[in-house]
Amino acid sequence: MKRLFNIGLLLVSASLAVGCFTKDDRNYQYFPNMYESVGYEAYGSYETFENTQEAQLPVEGTIPRGWKPYGFENSNDGYQNAKANLSNPLPYTEDNVNKGKELYTIYCAICHGDKGDGKGTLAQREKILGIPAYNDAGRAITEGSVYHVMFYGINTMGSYASQTSEEERWQINHYVMDLKAKLNGQPQRDFVSENEIAEVELETIDNHSQHEDEASVNEEHESLHTESEEQSHEVN
């Protein structure tokens, strides 16, 4: 009899529990404020925020997801610095060059021309004049200057930082430097093999590990030196 009573009580409890469930509601919430967030109107005034302003600036130094900071400023000094010191980090592979050619045709050829001679469609129609060839001695473009101009733009050329990723800009860079070499009558560079890329990556990892080991040893020496000085002071 007691067993039947327990079974009946269990069935009634289960029925009540199931009966309280509905697909239209969130039902039982363990932490309600994890489900029911407080909504704020954009540009509204709330005591919760500094100066009661809902629209807050990001924390200083915030970097947008998927974006990498570019360390050269948009000025003539920044241009000259990039021109002298910035180089292409992408390996010179056939895939990178082919992708660079494809992107160049989309974004650059209409002004700079398929050959990089400054005779693109817009130049021929006299919509934009004075576009120099990539082998123009007065400009003496480098990997760094090409990337800098693609990132910021210059004169009548706008920035392509929003249309292209960092990798894509460096792929275009490879192709632009190939066009410059071709205009100068120079042969195309040899592509880097997969084995050479793997060797460079392995060497980079080894160098990084070596620097970490050296830093660890230096830190240990500094720690021992500090302890020795403290003990010396205690004795004195």
From TrEMBL:
UniProt feature, compositional bias: Basic and acidic residues: 205-236
Single GO term (MF): electron transfer activity
Domain annotation Cytochrome c: ranges: 95-180
Keywords, ordered alphabetically: Heme, Iron, Metal-binding, Signal
Gene3D superfamilies referenced in this protein's UniProt entry, alphabetically: Cytochrome c-like domain
Signal peptide: 1-17
Region annotation (Disordered) ranges: 203-236
PROSITE patterns, A to Z: CYTC (PS51007), PROKAR_LIPOPROTEIN (PS51257)
Name this polypeptide is given: Quinol:cytochrome c oxidoreductase monoheme cytochrome subunit
Organism listed in the record: Mesonia phycicola
